[in-house]
Design brief:
The complex is a heterodimer of chains A (286) and B (337). By secondary structure, chain A is of the alpha+beta class. Chain A is built from nine helices and 16 strands. The chains are: A alpha+beta (286), B alpha/beta (337).
Chain lengths: 286, 337
């Protein structure tokens, strides 16, 4: 493909090919300071290509393509190609990655111990992770927690943090020197902006952490904290995992170990500041 | 040698045929081989072929993942076959596993690392209603509830409309023969079932010759060659396992032309062991070769014209012109699904 980009994020590497220049330039900017794939060979291929030849010029579009694709996925307008690239990378992970148990979760670290926050889209895990990273926690990742089946450790996968709508302003206020990618207006999820992962988080991407607390956050409701017993945590996490079934027995062993060893809480919060304070309180009580 | 003169799909084929060639791959070629292998559902196969050979570290990790994914696919396929066996056991009709599930159940080399999708089975045509009822009773349900599709399958196809299991989300395709009844070639379905080989648990697989004939029929007498490289790899492995009186049996099914083409192309692309008579490609093989290797190093489908030609051909093979016109008319009026 005409324009190419390669990057390694923690234990996973990607090569991205595009028939347009702009998204590759944007990726280079968002991922400045990341290493290249080891010996130039990536785990996953992502393609940003027009769904039909004329869509390169006429109302240009890109589709989310690569080693793994979803049949019937709707193409995005070319101005959202960066979003397509991030979605395609997520898709390769969700459908293709087998070296770790993947949880749809944001993860931050302090003192070698990891805080795993998981919930559906809109639960506020990315925002909380960004706010915590701004307050000195190390960001391990905002999209996937990578749990190694043999050690139980959470491996860092610090991609740029995808923030939506009001959360962009909330993070900017709390963290004035944060760096962002371009503003993507009118996406299927509203306005999206990627927060560049902190330099420390990128520099230490090969340093895993021991999971210490699992949080199930819920945004926009009256504050409440309740413990989640292992059996319930297990069921919730099977739903949050994209490859639990594909890993078979290894996935089962990794997940049962996680919920046995790591306490879990459900955390309802009305706004970012309250949520952060509640997370810090739970963490301090460990 | 492996230069840029061959297509990227050709590069993968060369490594599958002769794993020693992997030693000559540079980083760019590896990326191409891996992307083509993914796109052609040959990642697990590649992993098996390269087992034990020195490869760059990231490739070794990728291959280990592919090997493990294939092992999981094998386990799932065998379990699904067992579920089908239990559902159909009370009927007492002979149930023959086909394609990927058959290869792993019989422990054939074609099953090593193979990606397996649906569970394909062959049963006697007269047993279809009972088989269908038994499967539905055991938790399978219609995957395509559309009335026209349903009627189309029942009237014109060699299989029931696909059934999917409500709990396991796995598809079973129940065949009563190996080509659509509307196709110009009519294989001897009774002979396929009568000569099937028992596996020991009550299930059967096709005889060695019929396995090759089925794979060749599927590749060259049905469909548009999508996934054809994988099917040709199956044929290569099945040929290696050997089959007595293959040509005679192929002629009995009316599939002599397809089987000889399969032998020539499996030799040409993958270096299959075939008799001398089939070691020379024919001019008529050229478009097939072009189509089979129509994939670039980013995993993209290439050669649009060739692909379109084979797509049109697949409909032409399947249906007489009047039926084809009617089918396309109904599909067109209904609009895209």
């Amino acid at each position: 493909m005409r324009y190419r980009f390669g990057v390694r994020v923690g234990p996973v590497s990607f090569r991205v090919g595009s028939d347009r220049r702009a998204p590759v330039a944007q990726l280079r900017d968002l991922y400045a300071g990341y290493p290249a794939p080891e010996v130039g060979i990536a785990d996953h291929t992502v393609r940003l290509e027009a769904p039909r030849p004329w869509r390169r010029w006429l109302r240009p579009q890109v589709r989310v393509a690569g080693d793994f694709e979803l049949p019937g996925a709707v193409p995005l307008p070319a101005r959202h190609a960066l979003l397509a690239a991030e979605m395609a990378m997520n898709l390769q992970m969700a459908l293709g990655h087998r070296r770790h148990l993947l949880l749809h979760a944001a993860t931050v670290e302090q003192g070698g111990r990891a805080l795993v926050m998981t919930g559906e889209s809109g639960a506020g895990k990315s925002t909380l992770a960004a706010l915590l990273a701004g307050a000195g926690w190390r960001l391990l990742g905002d999209e996937f927690a990578l749990i190694a089946p043999d050690t139980g450790l959470a491996h860092a996968f610090p991609r740029p943090v995808s923030l939506k709508n009001e959360s962009v302003a909330a993070v900017r206020t709390a963290w004035p020197d944060a760096r962002f990618g371009p503003e993507l207006v009118g996406t299927p999820k509203g306005t999206i902006r990627h927060l560049v992962a902190p330099a420390d988080s990128v520099a230490r991407m090969d340093e895993p952490a021991r999971p210490a607390l699992i949080v199930f956050p819920r945004f926009g409701v009256a504050p409440d904290i309740r413990p989640v017993p292992p059996a319930e945590a297990f069921v919730r996490l099977t739903e949050a995992s994209t490859n639990y079934v594909a890993l078979g027995e290894r996935g089962f062993a990794a997940l049962t170990r996680l919920v046995r060893e790591v306490p879990a809480v459900a955390l309802d919060y009305p706004d970012g500041a309250t949520g952060m304070a509640a997370v810090e309180r739970c963490w301090a009580a460990l | 040698m492996l230069g840029r003169a061959v297509s990227d799909a050709g590069l993968l084929a060369g490594v599958l045929a002769d794993p020693e060639r992997a030693a000559a791959l540079d980083a760019g070629s590896w990326a191409a081989v891996m992307a083509v292998a993914r796109a052609e559902q040959l990642a697990g196969t590649l992993a098996h072929r390269l087992a034990g050979l020195p490869v760059p570290e990231p490739v070794a990790r990728w291959l280990a993942d592919a090997r493990e994914a294939a092992e999981q696919a094998r386990r799932t396929a065998l379990w699904e076959a067992e579920m089908v066996r239990r559902a159909l056991a009370p009927l007492g009709c002979r149930t023959v596993l086909l394609k990927g599930t058959a290869y792993v159940a019989a422990g054939l080399s074609a099953g090593q690392g193979r990606q397996i999708g649906d569970c394909d089975i062959l049963v006697p045509r007269e047993a279809l209603p009972a088989v269908e009822a038994a499967l539905i009773g055991a938790g399978w349900e219609w995957a395509k509830p559309d009335a026209y599709d349903n009627a189309y399958y029942r009237r014109w196809m060699h299989e029931l409309p696909p059934l999917i299991h409500e709990g396991r989300d796995r598809m079973v395709d129940v065949h009563h023969t190996i080509l659509p009844p509307t196709a110009r070639i009519t294989p001897d379905a009774e002979a396929l079932i009568a000569d099937a080989v028992p596996l020991g648990d009550g299930l059967h697989v096709l005889s060695p010759a019929d396995r090759i004939i089925h794979a060749a029929a599927h590749l060259f007498a049905d469909g548009d060659l999508s996934g054809g490289l994988r099917n040709l790899w199956d044929i290569r492995c099945l040929l290696d396992d050997g089959a007595a009186a293959l040509e005679v049996r192929a002629a009995q099914h009316g599939l002599g032309r397809e089987v000889t083409r399969a032998m020539r192309l499996a030799h040409r692309v993958f270096g299959a062991a075939v008799p001398d008579a089939y070691r020379q490609a024919r001019a008529s093989d050229a478009p097939y070769l072009r189509r089979l290797l129509a994939r670039d190093g980013w995993g993209r489908a290439t050669r649009r014209g060739t692909r379109l030609g084979f797509y049109v051909r697949s409909h032409w093979l399947r249906m007489p012109p009047a039926l084809l016109a009617r089918h396309l008319w109904i599909k067109w009026r209904r609009g895209p699904a």
